[in-house]
Amino acid sequence: MLKLSKIPFKEVLVEINNQDNRAELLLLSPSILVPCLEHAGCKVWDTLAIGEYLNEVAPEIKLLPSDTKKRAHCRSICGEMHSGFSALRASLPMNLKTQFTSFKVWSKAQLDIDRILVIWRECLTAYKGPYLFGKTPTLADAMFAPVVTRFLTYNVPLDAQSQKYCALIMAMPEMKEWVMGALQEPDDIEELDVEY
Ligand SMILES: N[C@@H](CCC(=O)N[C@@H](CS)C(=O)NCC(=O)O)C(=O)O
Q1: How far is residue 24 CA from its own chain's centroid?
Q2: 65 CA distance to ligand 1 centroid (A)?
Q3: Low-confidence stretches of the chain (pLDDT beneath 50)
Q4: Measured from the CA of 22, which atom of ligand 1 is nearest?
Q5: Which residues have any ligand 1 atom within 6 Å of their CB?
Q6: What is the largest CA-CA distance in the chain?
Q7: What's the gap in Å between 16 CA and the centre of ligand 1?
Q8: Most buried among 21, 72, 92, 101, by the most CB within 10 A?
Q9: Closest CA to 123 of 156, 75, 185, 56
């Protein structure tokens, strides 16, 4: 989201799996969770709040669509992503360092996948792509970008339209930077490499 907003930023890496670092994280983030943004004397935590804040401070970027109905649609699917898809999150964790070829998708996770594909199909058909809300990326594309990586990591079967959308997202320079950054991180999270 920040990269889309074009606001320059510096990332602070905190090792979240290490309990000793919780005090350090608390100083940075009131929720003791990431992400948390500090900008112009303002601290904003929680992904959706950060997205709304960025849309206010960089309105020219149009991180949310200008049209009210479209904006409501965009907020609705961002909300769905933010608060839902727990089976997908639990069983297909984001892992940019591994690629599974025959991963068994649990039925509840498949329901989440099916719903996400419907969300994408409706957006791409209604607004004619290539991004979910038309010609430029919005908060929704940023919110669903980790799902794109999960679909590719776990080799989730996709229809042609979704495959094209995933390829577009992965080709974005912001995504390439993210993937490169992850590959350079020295730590692996062992639980993520297990095929359940
Ligand atoms: N609703 C929050 C969720 C924040 C959250 O769960 N962050 C995770 C990483 S995605 C975290 O900080 N985990 C560290 C921990 O649980 O100690 C948001 O999207 O900002």
Answers
A1: 25
A2: 26
A3: 196
A4: 17
A5: 16, 33-35, 46-47
A6: 49
A7: 10
A8: 92
A9: 75
pLDDT of residue 196: 47
This model's pTM is above 0.70: yes
Q: How far is the CA of 157 from the centre of ligand 1 (A)?
A: 28
What the chain holds in terms of domains, given with CATH numbers, is 2-61 (3.40.30.10), 68-180 (1.20.1050.10)
Residue 144: what pLDDT? 98
**Ligand 1 nearest-atom number relative to CA 29:** 12
Dihedral sign for Cα 163, 89, 180, 154, please.
Answer: negative
Between the CA of 34 and the centroid of ligand 1 the distance, in Å, is: 5
pLDDT of residue 194: 60
Q: How many residues does the chain have?
A: 196
Contact 29, 49 (CB under 8 A): no
Question: Over 127-175, what HEC string results?
Answer: HCCCECCECCCCHHHHHHHHHHHHHHHCCCCCCHHHHHHHHHHHCCHHH
Atom of ligand 1 nearest to the CA of 17: 17
CA distance 180 to 185: 9
Q: Residue with the nearest Cα to atom 10 of ligand 1?
A: 34
* Token pair 């993520």 in the structure block, residue: 192
